[in-house]
Amino acid sequence: MTAPLDLKAYLAQQENKSFLRFLTCGSVDDGKSTLIGRLLYDSKLLFEDHLSALEKDSKKFGTDGENIDFALLVDGLEAEREQGITIDVAYRFFATDKRKFIVADTPGHEQYTRNMATGASNSDLAVVLIDARKGVLTQSRRHSYICSLLGIRHIVLAVNKIDLVGFNQVIFDDIVKDYRAFAENLGFASLVPIPISARYGDNVISRSPRMPWYQGPALLDHLNTVDAESDLAARPFRMPVQWVNRPNLDFRGFSGTIASGAVRPGDAVVVAGSGRTSTVARIVTYDGDLDEASAGDAVTLCLADEIDVSRGDVLAPAAARPEVSDQFSAHMLWMAEDELLPGRQYLLKVGAKTVPAQVTELKHKVDVNTFEHLAAKTLHLNEVGYGNVSLTMPIAFDPYRDNRDTGGFILIDRFTNATVAAGMIDFGLRRATNVHWQALDVHKRARAGLNHQKPAVLWFTGLSGSGKSTIANLVEKALFAEGRHTYILDGDNVRHGLNRDLGFTDADRVENIRRVGETAKLFVDAGLIVLVSFISPFRSERRMARELLAPGEFIEIFVDTPIEECMRRDPKGLYEKAVAGEIANFTGISSPYELPETAEMVVKTQGRTPQDCATEIVRFLKKRDIVP
Length: 628
Fold this sequence. Notes:
The protein is α/β, with parallel strands linked by helices and 628 residues long. Helix content is 27%, strand content 28%. A 7-stranded antiparallel sheet has the order 7-15-11-12-14-9-8, with no helix packed on it. The chain has a 6-stranded mixed sheet with strand order 2-3-1-4-5-6, with helices on both faces. Strand 18 and strand 19 form a beta hairpin.
C-alpha cells in the first residue's frame, strides 16, 4: 500500500524547484520538434489522451512509417503537419524531479527567423541542432548569432541524426570544431556539444551504449544541472510601471513586475525620467504586504510622497539610475516584409512605454557567416543591422547586455500596428541631453504678427505631372501680390542643393521628405507661409511632416490628377523613360503612391485650368484665416 500523498509538501517542493527557459533552433529539418517530442515521451510526461492522439496523427501526418512521429507533439498547426515543418513558435511546459522547464520550439526556415527571435527573447539556454549529414549551415549560424544578440549565454550543440552517419565520432568532432571556430567571438559562457539521435532517443534522456566514445552528459542531465540562473537579483533595482493602481481615494500604488534587483520598505527610489525621488512605504500583493520583493515579482509599490508617476515610467534606486536619453545606438533584427526606411517614423515600445521614433542612421548590417560589417542604407526581412535611433522624448533604459527588460525594444508600424523590428540597446547618445532649445525674445507669434498672417505649410502632394508646382507657383504669386510673406520649396529645386546627395530609393525618399519637413518648420517659425511642392508618395512621411508643426499649421493639398492624364502630359518625358525601364523607383510606375486619407483640400485638375485651381486654394486659405 502506497503512502498517502502529502499535498502541501508536494506543492512546496514544486514551488522551490529551479526554472529553466530554453529553445531549440537551427536549420530546417534538423529535428527540433522531434527532439522535444522525444524528451516529453521518454520522460513519461504525456497523458494517455495525448499518446492516443499522437499515434493517430502519426498515421495521418507522420514521416516515420509505422513509428510514432514525435515532431507532431509540437507541430500543432495544420500547415506545419502537412509540410512537416515548424512555422510558429510552440511552447511546452514540463518538469523533472530536479527542475521545471519551458521549451520553445522555433522554426528553421529563413522566412520565419523573426519567430525564432521571439522564442529566444525569453530564453536562458539554446539547443542548436545540427544535422550530422549537413554540418554547420547558414541558418545554424544566423540563429546562433541572434541568440548571442538576445543575451543567451548557454548553448547546447546537439549534433542530431548521428545514427544516419553510423555514429561516427570523426564527423561529430569535425562539426564541433567548425562550430567552435564560428562561435568563438559570440560571448557564450558555456558550449556543450552532444551527439544525439532524437528519433531513437540516443543521448537524449540517458547516455547511449551505441556511442561509447562519447563521455559527456545526456541532454536531459545537462538541462537538469546547467547553472543558467540569471543574476538579475544582484543588479540594480528596476521596475517599469505598468499600471497606476487607484481603486479609491485612500490608496495610490504603482504596479509592475520587478525587472531586476530587490526593493524593501524604506528604500529610496527615483522616477528615472523626471528625477523625482521618494521612499517605498509599502510593498503590496494580493496575499498581503511583503518585507522584500525581487526580480520576477509582480507587486504594487506605495510611495511615501505624492509624486507624479505614470504608466511607462521606471522606478530605480536614486544612486543607481538607468540612462535617460532620446537617442541611442542599437542592434536591430528586421522582422517585416517591407524594408526599413531610415527617417520614417515608427512607434518604439520598451517595457510599458511607447513613443514615436525613427532610425536616423543605419551604420551597417551584419553578414551572419563572417560577422563582417556591410555598408547598407536599409534592412530587409531577417537582416541584422546596427544604427542610431532617435525618439520624440527621452526614455529611461539600460544597455541590453545589462538588462533585457529595460534594454530591449520593438518597433511598430504606425499604420498597420505590426511589429517590424526587435532591438537591443547598446548605449545612449548623450548629444540630445547636451543640446537645448535656445530661448529667443523674438518668437514665431511676433514674426507672424508683423507679417499680418498666420504661418503655415501648404503641402502640395500628387503624382509627377499632376500640376503641383504650377499651381503652387500661381498660389504664391497671388499671395505675394496681396503683400503676404511666402517662400516656395519645390522638389526639383531642393534636390539641386539641400538634398543633392539623395537618390530615389524608398529610403532616400523618406530622408528627402524629413529634411524638407524640418526646413519647412523653420520657415513657419520665421512667420512665413511656405509652399511645399513634392510628390511625397508615402503617408508616413507626410504625417511625420505634419506632426512637426502645431495643430492647424499643416495644410495638405492633394492635387488629384489621374495617372493616365499625368502620362499624357508627361512634361519632362519621365513616364516614357520609366515605362521603358530607364528610370528606376518612379512613383506610379515602379514605386507606389499612397493616396492621402485626411487631406485638408483635394484639388481635382481635370477640365480645369491651373489658375482656377490656384484661385480655389487662395479662397480656402482666407476661409481658414491663414490670410485675412
